[in-house]
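QUALITY CONTROL LOG
STEP: pairwise intake check
CHECKER ROLE: data steward
CRITERIA: each record must contain a sequence immediately followed by its structure tokens, with no blank fields

ENTRY 1 OF 2
RESULT FIELD BELOW
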Amino acid sequence: MRRLFMTALAALMLAGCKMGPNYARPETATGESWKLSPATSESIANLPWWELLKDSALQQLIRTALQQNQDMRVAAAAVREFHAQLIISRFDLAPSLEYSGMGAIFHTQTHAVPIPVGTAPVLIPGIGGGSSTLSNESGLGMLKWEVDLWGRIRRSIEAAQAQLLSQSENQRTVVLELVSSVAQAYFDLRQLDLQVEVTQRTLTTWKETVRISQVKLEQGVISKLDLDRFEAERANTAAQLADLERQVVQKENQLNLLLGRQPAAIARGLPLTEQPMPPTVPAGLPSDLLGRRPDILQAEQELVAATANIGVAQAQRLPILSLTGALGVASTQLSSIAIGPTLTQAALGSLSGSLLNATALGFQVKVAKAKAEQAAVQYEKAIMTAFKEVEDALIAVQKTREQREAQEQQVASLRSAFTLAELRYQGGRASYLDLLTAQRDLFNAELALARTRGAQLVSVVQLYKALGGGWSPESLNQAVPAAVVGKGGE
């Protein structure tokens, strides 16, 4: 026992050794500033989502989605799964305790043997006959411990820990995708609502124009051609209204799917024209992306796990030292002789390794290294994708704002031109073509302005998402300040 104890002590001293490389974050060029925006310490991504999206109806939709969306529930279950896997892997470091018990009883019986006397056999009672009973009971407890000489178990725990963190970041990615998708779909819906409102107003105007034209036709002031053109424009506007109403219902269905529920009416809040826009949208520092974007952090944890698995593969090629101790009790009794319980003690150490499959294990190391190389490339790609998405969002925010301002001026001018054309047409100083062109141009410009207003709001959400903005699973349980909620509509 003393020798076994000394062997275990020496093994523990060697246990600090771990095969395989230790993880080090790859060097990645992040740049000092963005292409289209100066680098600042402030970032829109630092805002809580309810301070960016101040429409109370939208806030309620987001919270419903975080609670009910199926992808969210799957991601949460995956985190629980990998947390349990981590706990299981940690048990490999501790000794395992096993037990066994057995009980048996054996009964034998012999009969009298016939002894030949003369020409016929004669049975003589009591000679050659009898019975005996044997019973056996035993119990055994065994303690077994694999000494982690080469760090195989500890590298496995490192890999399991990294996989758990990867799933946690995946959950944040799902939250980021979900909340941004709800916000974008909601703004798209409010954009369609505005376009429906513009189209209904324009249709009412066309109906009035057609009514006046019918009166003028009866009075002989205009020709049937003028009336037909106005009637055609009215019908075209009615067709566009029907198409927009279809899109509204389908967009509501899309939102309901994100909310994890069956199709139903979607509550509206602030109109599109009243949605608050942040005065500035600072992007922060490019290097901040490495510690904020969940997809980048997820890719890094996958690289950590792949690096640890190299050590696992290398350690599997080396001998495994196991220490085993056993303690048992046995009792054997015969019908004629009684033997008391027996105490059994045993201690042993075993050293095992691979011989014939050593070459295969060598290729397992190559497999692990190749997977680590793939994970490193995926990590680099995630960073490059993040920079691309931020730059795309920055240019979208800048240009949609400029586009909206220009289109607002266009709509104002066309509205004035339509008013003048209508007055001149009613006064007989302008042709139907002037009025038709002015009305059509104003209608198309108002629809385009509604699309740009929606695109500008969506671009801000996309920038917030690209920067890895402040949505997280924990935000589900955070209370939204009453003053913020009160700013929304009903």
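ENTRY 2 OF 2
RESULT FIELD BELOW
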Amino acid sequence: MKFLRSLLPLVTLSIFISAGPLAAQRGKGLHHRALLVDTHNDCLSAQTLAGRDLAASLKEGHSDYYRFKKGGVDVQFFSVFTGETARTSQGYYHDAIEEIDSLNRLVLRHPDKFNFATSYKEVKRRAHRRRVVAMIGVEGGHMIESDLKKVDSLAARGMRYLTLTWNNSTEWATSARDESGAGVLLTQKGLSEFGKTVVRRLNELGVIVDLSHVGEQTFYDALAVTTKPVLLTHSSVWSICPVFRNAKDEQLLALKKNGGVICVNFYPAFISKEFVAQQRYWNGPGKDSVFALWAPSDTAKARAQWQTAMAAALDNARPGIADVANHIDHVVKLIGIDHVGIGADFDGIGFVPRGLEDVSSYPRLTEELLRRGYSNSDIRKILGKNVLRVVKANCP
């Protein structure tokens, strides 16, 4: 008996050591059986502008076909994006068409690796484990150039969500940056009558209304008009990280009433207020202190020293997988398991959380959710079923 008691600590230790790998194995198995839908990735811009081939194995960026497959990505909304200044004299709409054409060429060149879907039925039929199903999200209402015919045209070319604003406001919708006072001074907030017409038109066309990036007044105006559930395709939680791009609890409660889904963004500045504090320090007092040592005698050296110090400090301050899961937890506790998804914003962010370095790392988030006690059914909802419900409600 004494001998058996002496073995007990060794047995316990053995179980403890094996629990980690077993949990990881279970998480990976569940992850790859589930349907993973990511609602926001900016890799299309690099393919269009820098010539990256997403079908190849790439060293640059966060995304390519092989990493998508390693990460278990089944459906990827590719973000069509151009900034508040158009890339050419032909304008925003031309920039959008250029990126959509780039995605179409990718699918045509590599039908064994990528497929295309414009509806829920097509997603369900084409979401084979071997291919990545591509869907289109247009990030910014400025790309319709205040023209309903261009809404129709983008929808005909496959647009399945429209983010009503990017950081820049349009004449018909105000952005979160501008409404917060961090951007241009506004005389009026929210949706204009034309903006409300845009929302109605999106509903008619089967295009999801995306309320990431929009100001609070625009958010509530859009919810008052739409007859279908909306997405926040790449936003996180204000009460954990209070920045203008995140959703406040009151907004989340309104989202629940609408039946919509918030897809958590992985950008450290939307996840961790400690990271935000470091950003503010190195763009303020930290920068001043470095420049005081070197400028004006050697401004170039001062800038280089500042950028090196800031990059190291921000890398040190990066949050981890647990911090991302905290945002998911908050949404689930506040409005329920049916209203949260994943919109990582890979290839659109300069820093990533530790452990979530690129699209191949999604299984680690599933492992973390399992450790927190989420059921298999809950995790399937977070990874894709919740978003697909919204897709089905808008474009069956």
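INTAKE CHECK: passed for both entries
DESCRIPTIVE NOTE, ENTRY 2: Residues 1-19 have pLDDT under 50 and may be disordered.
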